[in-house]
Amino acid sequence: MKFDSKVIYKPRSQPALQRGFFSVVTFAFWMAYAYLWLPLLTLFLWLLGVRTAVFELYLREHQVEPFLLISLPMLALASAVILIAWAEYNRYRFRDKDRRGAHANVDRQDIARAFGSSDEIARSLVASKVAVLRMDDSAAPVGVSTL
């Protein structure tokens, strides 16, 4: 297969101005898409009684409850601090620890048995990094060509 630069997208090779423009355009279209979902979201929230909750909490007295103005941002800030602290703790705890082990090498007999092929085909597959496997009509390997 021939390399096609249109298929493989490398954003870091684009100029920064072009990347920025595409990011702004993408964000604008996502916002337009989200705006189209607002009527359905409003209906869902109305069915859950959120309008009633807003009326009871904020609009009945024609004023906003000062406790809510202080407590809700503080709760959001506390949640953010706890989540960031937990993420940093895990990053510190698992830093420089590679828990992934190396895979055992597979010998030629296992490869030949798994493919249902001869030892010669398995030897060619082990010796090459890139190979094209030719199959017969019953999907059994009959040959291999290395690139």
TrEMBL record:
The lineage of its organism: Bacteria, Pseudomonadati, Pseudomonadota, Gammaproteobacteria, Lysobacterales. GO terms for biological process: cell adhesion involved in single-species biofilm formation. InterPro entries: PGA_PgaD. Pfam families: PgaD. Signal peptide: none annotated. The gene is pgaD. The chain crosses the membrane at residues 21-47, 67-87. The keyword Transport does not apply. Keywords: Membrane, Transmembrane, Transmembrane helix. This is Poly-beta-1,6-N-acetyl-D-glucosamine biosynthesis protein PgaD. It comes from Luteimonas gilva.
